């Protein structure tokens, strides 16, 4: 019996509470508001077309990352746990698909976030096929590498998945090993090598600019670690997407402060310069500890113009069908009451005044 067949049989025979995937999924609070499952408004008006789904299981995610709201050992029932600090209401998959089909012309990007579960692969495929039967909006899967192999990635591709996201989060092997492991439970944790095997296979199967790696700023990495990874990914035509670490209460890293706004804005700017302007590591200067201390003065005009334009500070996410912003995850990196860490729309003139002050741009060149 093949592993795939064994998994299918297990999936069919499994005990279910009745509110698990694939019949049920969680959706981000912003998606629930946009689709009318919840009442509410965004603090500022903007078009919202990225719908984020999250698989749901009674026993939750089997991984135990130190910063994650869904971590297995974080106190509380899985049903009540937040993820990237936002609530994820539970809805029937078929109701969700019908609502998305009804407003398809307003949607820009759909995404299924897997969790580490033996059922996650088959359920993601099933939900993909239900969506693709009725909705034409491009679909991403933010994958759980421990549940995948090359053959399974190929099945996602054959099912019509457009892009693959890999939540690397920690940008060095040392950090990854120390944070993405279930130390309190004495478990083995996630494998850096496995994550990169999935990145490599996804890049081969899905092609250039169809794979992305989520990277978190504020887990303990240096600026130089981030720049090295951005260059490495962009060279391979893989998108680096930036997230700002935002401590989840009661998680193992719940008391670790988020990065300062100046560091965050500078990393946003630097990432944009690497991705869109071809900057390399030696265009920047770093301290011995790897903190960014400057950008070559020869680039000053371009850097100031980039900062003034504002695109560098928008949310990184999979694009819509025509390259427009697709997945914008409002409130993924900040609370609704806080200033935007990334903007799900083009920053306004007054936003840009604040951003320039936060960047301390005059002190950026050497
Ligand atoms: S950027 Fe959005 S759509 Fe793309 S993989 Fe990440 S969560 Fe999914």
From TrEMBL:
PROSITE patterns: RADICAL_SAM. Signal peptide: none annotated. The keyword Hydrolase does not apply. Keywords: Iron, Iron-sulfur, Metal-binding, S-adenosyl-L-methionine. Pfam families: Radical_SAM. The keyword Metal-binding applies. InterPro entries: Aldolase_TIM, Elp3/MiaA/NifB-like_rSAM, rSAM, rSAM_sf. CDD domains: Radical_SAM. Gene3D superfamilies: Aldolase class I. Residues 1-20 are annotated as: Disordered. Residues 47-280 form the Radical SAM core domain. This is Radical SAM protein. It comes from Ferrimicrobium acidiphilum. The lineage of its organism: Bacteria, Bacillati, Actinomycetota, Acidimicrobiia, Acidimicrobiales.
């Amino acid at each position: 019996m093949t592993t795939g067949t064994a998994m299918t049989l297990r999936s069919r025979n499994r005990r279910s509470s009745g509110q698990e995937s694939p019949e049920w999924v969680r959706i981000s609070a912003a998606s629930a508001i946009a689709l009318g499952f919840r009442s509410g408004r965004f603090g500022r008006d903007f078009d919202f077309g990225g719908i984020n789904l999250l698989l749901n299981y009674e026993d939750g995610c089997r991984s135990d990352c130190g910063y994650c709201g869904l971590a297995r050992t974080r106190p509380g029932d899985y049903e009540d746990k937040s993820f990237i600090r936002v609530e994820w209401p539970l809805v029937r998959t078929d109701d969700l698909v019908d609502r998305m089909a009804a407003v398809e012309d307003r949607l820009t990007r759909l995404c299924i976030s897997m969790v580490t579960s033996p059922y996650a692969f088959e359920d993601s495929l099933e939900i993909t096929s239900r969506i693709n039967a009725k909705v034409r909006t491009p679909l991403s899967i933010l994958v759980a590498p421990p549940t995948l192999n090359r053959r399974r990635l190929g099945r996602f591709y054959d099912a019509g998945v457009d892009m693959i996201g890999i939540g690397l989060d920690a940008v060095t092997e040392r950090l990854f090993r120390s944070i993405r492991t279930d130390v309190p439970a004495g478990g083995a944790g996630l494998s850096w090598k496995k994550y990169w095997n999935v990145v490599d296979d996804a890049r081969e199967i899905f092609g250039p600019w169809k794979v992305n790696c989520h990277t978190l700023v504020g887990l303990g990495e240096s600026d130089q670690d981030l720049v090295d990874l951005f260059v490495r990914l962009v060279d391979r035509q893989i998108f680096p997407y930036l997230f700002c670490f935002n401590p989840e209460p009661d998680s193992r890293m719940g008391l670790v402060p988020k990065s300062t706004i100046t560091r965050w804005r500078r990393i946003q700017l630097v990432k944009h310069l690497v991705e869109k302007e071809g900057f390399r590591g030696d265009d920047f200067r770093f301290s011995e500890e790897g903190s960014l201390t400057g950008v070559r003065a020869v680039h000053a005009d371009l850097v100031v113009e980039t900062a003034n334009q504002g695109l560098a500070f928008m949310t990184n996410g999979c694009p819509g069908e025509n390259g427009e912003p697709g997945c914008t995850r409002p409130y993924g990196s900040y609370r609704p009451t806080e200033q935007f860490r990334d903007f799900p729309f083009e920053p306004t003139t007054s936003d840009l005044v604040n951003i320039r002050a936060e960047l301390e741009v005059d002190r950026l060149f050497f």
